[in-house]
Amino acid sequence: MSLRPARQEPIAGLYEPVTPAGHAVLDRLRGYLPLIRSTAAEHDRAGTFPTGTFDTFRKEGMLGATVPTELGGMGLDRLYDVAVAILAVAQADASTALALHMQFSRGLTLGYEWRHGGPAARALAERLLRAMVAGDAVVCSGIKDHHSAVTTLTPDGSGGWLLSGRKTLVSAGPVGTHFVINAQTDGTGEPPRLASPVVTRDNPGLSVLDNWDGLGMRASGTVDIVFDNCPIPASDVLMRDPVGARNDAALAGQTVSSIAMLAIYVGVAQAAYDLTVAALARRPEPPQAAAQTLVADAGSRLYALRATASTALTTIDVLNTDTSMDPGERGRQMMRPFQHAKMMVNQLAPSIVSDCLTLVGGAAFTAGHPLARCYRDVRAGGFMQPYTYVDAVDFLSSQAFGIDRDNNYMSHWAIRARSQGSATAESPSKLLSR
Amino acid sequence: MSLRPARQEPIAGLYEPVTPAGHAVLDRLRGYLPLIRSTAAEHDRAGTFPTGTFDTFRKEGMLGATVPTELGGMGLDRLYDVAVAILAVAQADASTALALHMQFSRGLTLGYEWRHGGPAARALAERLLRAMVAGDAVVCSGIKDHHSAVTTLTPDGSGGWLLSGRKTLVSAGPVGTHFVINAQTDGTGEPPRLASPVVTRDNPGLSVLDNWDGLGMRASGTVDIVFDNCPIPASDVLMRDPVGARNDAALAGQTVSSIAMLAIYVGVAQAAYDLTVAALARRPEPPQAAAQTLVADAGSRLYALRATASTALTTIDVLNTDTSMDPGERGRQMMRPFQHAKMMVNQLAPSIVSDCLTLVGGAAFTAGHPLARCYRDVRAGGFMQPYTYVDAVDFLSSQAFGIDRDNNYMSHWAIRARSQGSATAESPSKLLSR
Amino acid sequence: MSLRPARQEPIAGLYEPVTPAGHAVLDRLRGYLPLIRSTAAEHDRAGTFPTGTFDTFRKEGMLGATVPTELGGMGLDRLYDVAVAILAVAQADASTALALHMQFSRGLTLGYEWRHGGPAARALAERLLRAMVAGDAVVCSGIKDHHSAVTTLTPDGSGGWLLSGRKTLVSAGPVGTHFVINAQTDGTGEPPRLASPVVTRDNPGLSVLDNWDGLGMRASGTVDIVFDNCPIPASDVLMRDPVGARNDAALAGQTVSSIAMLAIYVGVAQAAYDLTVAALARRPEPPQAAAQTLVADAGSRLYALRATASTALTTIDVLNTDTSMDPGERGRQMMRPFQHAKMMVNQLAPSIVSDCLTLVGGAAFTAGHPLARCYRDVRAGGFMQPYTYVDAVDFLSSQAFGIDRDNNYMSHWAIRARSQGSATAESPSKLLSR
Amino acid sequence: MSLRPARQEPIAGLYEPVTPAGHAVLDRLRGYLPLIRSTAAEHDRAGTFPTGTFDTFRKEGMLGATVPTELGGMGLDRLYDVAVAILAVAQADASTALALHMQFSRGLTLGYEWRHGGPAARALAERLLRAMVAGDAVVCSGIKDHHSAVTTLTPDGSGGWLLSGRKTLVSAGPVGTHFVINAQTDGTGEPPRLASPVVTRDNPGLSVLDNWDGLGMRASGTVDIVFDNCPIPASDVLMRDPVGARNDAALAGQTVSSIAMLAIYVGVAQAAYDLTVAALARRPEPPQAAAQTLVADAGSRLYALRATASTALTTIDVLNTDTSMDPGERGRQMMRPFQHAKMMVNQLAPSIVSDCLTLVGGAAFTAGHPLARCYRDVRAGGFMQPYTYVDAVDFLSSQAFGIDRDNNYMSHWAIRARSQGSATAESPSKLLSR
Known about the structure:
4 copies of one chain form a homotetramer. By secondary structure, the first copy, chain A, is of the alpha+beta class. The first copy, chain A, is built from 13 helices and 10 strands. In chain A, strands 1, 2, 3, 4, 5, 6, 7, 8, 9 and 10 form a 10-stranded mixed sheet that branches. In chain A, a hairpin with a 5-residue loop joins strand 3 and strand 4. The longest helix of chain A has 34 residues.
């Protein structure tokens, strides 16, 4: 007698990839899950980055998953499938998923530059993308300035730039070889612009700190990096809009960069739920009334969680390939479902995990228990950009009411930094000592 | 200058049909929305059925929307597209959507009999389906026994049956021409079976009561019907499983019959939200802090609501055409996402509507205000079968824990009725007097 | 054998009065509960005011419950005990409780004028209070202007005033003999002031409309009243602060006027819960898992609901007698717990009622079912002043952050009305025709 | 100029003690708060017990706070005031509050034995209570058996007992000098009984493990203790009911032992809220819309949290002194409000803390941030006995529906242990090696 394997809920809900590239990436990733799973607790406890795992990813070309096939990558280009892959990794370890997402995300955004950018941007992007495929590059991004510094590009007088400042919350920093960060020019000669310089690990002014000690996501290597007059050639800077330009076109790239991170929290919730149901099913006594109710409720919230993230990803994948639209409108249409989904993910996923702790009972309250890790990791979702909950309310309500405002959070930060900057920014040499 | 219309979030989320038939049905329904909208308040107030609207539906072939094209219908066969159509109607009036859903649902389930049933079932189904197209039939279903009676088929001694009992909550009853109800045989000769006789309006033993007076859904004509020894030819009875058979295959048909009703509550929530945002946007003063927060929160819940229903419908449409699976497993795989989605719909939709009342303020608390109607109508979702919340917890938790049980709620009812029936069942003549 | 009656949770939680006057009032009210209960459904259905009940209250001195004993009243002066009494009535009928609360509230606020006001105010208050005891007065308050009019006092040239405007949401209006309303002077001669004229039923310019048709609270007679140049002697006007004065002392009176209304929603939730538990306990089968869970959860929310309202009332009763404090600080200290409690009541009470509908099932969805009435009535809590949810967020957050603002909602309204008034206000003769 | 200090919401809500003893204890504890606060982060990080703090408590008589004055203690006997004291400590450090609560709780329960027990129990209680006052005793309780062992008393053949087994989750274990544990007799000669032996630290068979490593409450020293044939004189055993006796009288003692622990989670939520509001108030920009809304909402939940715990404590203090009631009924009447309050505390407190993280932003997600500690500590509330959420639903729903069952969770455990015990229990020597 042969048992026909049960089909899991298919098609939608982030259960399966929808492209061949998605299947290929997921299949390969599945091979790493035992390794990831087996070292997760130890890295969580010690707060260390899983360098071994990432070395393997590098050597085996995994970091080129989202690099276009023309450049030797695996050509994964659907956000939906990126999310399915990240979800699988997150079920084993959320920190690894977060760090890996950064690579997948860089492949996508640099791939966009390579396809649609000007000649300089295309050359820079191609260089980085080929290096990712070859295993020579781990490209990290640095978005958020440390409160003590405004990260600024100053002309070096001979056509290049000097970069100073400090970025915080740079995931995978310990293994990063290139850092694509957002900065602003200092306004000499022309109004200040947003810009994305690429800083290589061997830049003499760069320091990668070893200062990550999170409540959760402890193995994600989410460190600070400090720039002390880093020389940056002009060819390594992607120029963006002037500070204060209201350009909602930027929302498209921000959505693409970040939306698949929702899958991390879906994965954590799914892992917690599976583990919990299995634990209760093993008990000799039948489940009590409240256990039945919580399992049904949490299962339904998990379903909604998957469905909501899945639907946003599907929609955004379509918009992502539609370049006929007005760029600002396209940016807003991508950001809206992303933010709606993000608000729900950050409400539903933690509630599922918390109910799982309730169901499993006191054992889950020990530091090393997988559910205790889920409880800490899942809370990270609320702090991911764009946007925080508070900023998302401003964005979504202004969209609902038709109120015009600057929706680019990087531009917001840049403006705020300029107005407060002189008071709080400090010299880079001081920044290192924290 | 031409304005490019903004694309609403497309593809997923029940914003647009996915088949040509879905588009055709939706386009035609849109033509009726002004009529539906303009009479909704009055029918709600008086608790009357919108007979005029349904006469128009009948005459113009609208009740054949889900009848196969081979039989002259419009051939709408995707539950997703049924839901998109119902959602549009529900935004105008939830009661009308509920009554119309019953027709669309009958088209689908009778279409299934016509394609997959035995010769007798196929003949019966074809007759009804052609009549729906011709505008000669409004086919209602009656599921739930009145507490006072077990609806029972007794052999009439000459190969036919006599039907007695009482059904409650039969929507569109006032205009129903045929009633497909679930009953059980009385066990004479062979063990009692579940069976679905079709009772025509002119059956001498049939009484359609005028007893609907709901908290909400007041225009849905959700009345009781009483059977007093109705003669039913054998050819008008669809035979099902013996009472007590555990046949999860039945869950497939139950899912198909009911899942698109979720769109009613999605539509109510969407209508409430749209109306509220428009009202606040008209106010001269900018929205206060809590109004911004509630609008963003409720909008995100609305997004999750659409996404969750949408994902379940997409999944179930695929399973619905996959006849290669084990029928029991297929039934469970269809019922699970339906129930997960239903639990979330019944949590999210009322919360959105309630927040809308908060945002609009005291004006919404008058009986005739559209939001007051939404507040009453949206609460109906929790009472739709299958399952109620309490039964859904039993189903979903047993599925999660791998506990075997009878998942067919009609079978449950039949068993319970048999054990309690003799004590409470009364003669039909008495039933009429209530 | 004698059964010792079980002590219900005593002392705190609004289970029992704490003063002898509270016991006396509650004991007398209990005698009316059968009458109130027996007519509630019919008045709800028809939207009629229980005039018979209030005639009885009048004749038997019940409207003097909170009038000081020195003036012949029953001397109930603790808000806690007022709430216990109102809660008992609300369990029978929320509308009656709302209308009765208005009388109890007037007794308290007029009692304050009588004790602490100037000579004119004391004389006016005494007159009204003695009439309440004698059964000659039913004193209603009118707070909220109809959107079409700013209720304004204009000097009549001979020392008195002429009052024009329209008030909406005046509970017990059908039986009101005196209306204490808030208005503003027109600014002739001196800056506009807030003022509270008392208008008697026989005033030639007064019209009491019969226009209440609420979603819930349908028997509360919450009508509009229109003033068309009503002559008001100076002695019948209580003068307040100038419009725009930031005087948080007014918050004390607003708290005293309104906080005991929280007990209405506690009562509705308690009634729904009791009815539901009794219905489930009568069923032959044991409660299913989700029923057990919901009953325990809803019971706990009910406990928190009672505790939260109870604690706020206890605190405010103490502050109410402490006249040594700075009046503004006292106002804020009274309003804060009131608003905290109000926010929770309006969250917890509707959720309990909704869970009760779920537990009882489809029967609860008929218009006349007691739970359907609870579902409609309980939603009124969110619309009671002060404050609505949106305004409460402004008040509570500014209190938390130490942000100075005008907390008097009547003053807010007056200022807004002045700025928008000329555009929207209409002549009273037109107002009548709506 | 002198500023009149603002009165915090007084009287109810756990803001102030209600007895002189309560004031005395709180005043003395306040002196220790700077010490507790200053070492909390370090003990949390390392998972070490604050032995220094407890040495000070011991030396300065603080552990006699709840010991009757007749025995030299401070005579604190109101649970309300115990909670106020514990709340203050928990605002500084939840772990210390948990460990200190255990002492206060022992003083209360041993005080009850001293007043109401038989001669042997009274003598034993007096000895321990006097030692607590003198600083010679830190009395811990051990309730929950390690899953591997049933803690059992076997007659030693000469009138005493031998104790074997293992207890888990014994807070303050590292400094415990006496352990009052619950065990059962082995059934030799007479049916097995529940019993509470007192084991002294120097008992040759006792091992206090150093195995606490919690998700939160990391400084509470919540270790396992192992008994390997510990000799226990008969005079050191408090005999309870036979295993399986349904004696709800035991619920009274269980309530008294545990209810004041609710104040720990109230304190954590209050600390998180205060810290958050202060952080936001310091920011140069005004709070955004969602920040205002969350602060008002969370503040209201905090109010309800305090009110609910406060009301339960007030009620239970009254019942605690009422020995005229039927003991079983009294036990149930004490346990019901405790459990209602516990369910709400475990829902409200974590939600407040989580909102505080949202408001403060990414900084709160670092391991050492006070809010990160709050987030971990506050989750402990769900695991405290009696009861867990799942068991509380069984208790409260059976109380609501009038279903008779054994409500003594210790008895439950004993019965389950007996039925499963032989399969899983292991020899104590093996237990040590884990």
